[in-house]
Amino acid sequence: MILMMVAIFAIMWLFMIRPQQKRQKEIRNFQNALQAGQKVVTGGGIYGTVKSIDQLQGKVEVEIAKGVVITVDKSYVFADAAASQTPGANA
Which of 24, 25, 66, 81 has its CA 20 to 30 A from that of 75? Predict the structure, then answer.
């Protein structure tokens, strides 16, 4: 019985917990490597371009339209998947 419980936990760890931890690490690395000019998506689904980064306060200024800049927390800024794809890759 104990062997079965250990096996179930090991399977859960391999297929659920480990991939999620890997993904979180990739997101954290992206957020720490943010640079001005990068295309991003906020946690609320707003697409924009990074204008400036305040590392001390953990804030990022994102331009969402010409002349419209919003300030968001750095932990709510993610990579823009559409911008990272190469044109013509799906053709």
Answer: 66
Q: Which two tokens stand for residue 49?
A: 């371009």
pLDDT tens-digit profile, the chain (91 residues): 899 999 999 998 888 888 999 999 998 998 888 899 999 999 899 999 999 999 899 899 999 999 999 999 999 999 877 766 655 545 4
> Cα(54)–Cα(74) distance, rounded to whole angstroms?
9
- What is the end-to-end Cα distance of the chain in Å, rounded? 52
3-state SS class at 78: strand
Query: Rounded to an integer, what distance in angstroms lies between the CA atom of residue 31 and that of residue 37?
Result: 14
* Contact partners, residue 70, CB within 8 Å, separation at least 6: 42, 46, 48, 61, 62, 64
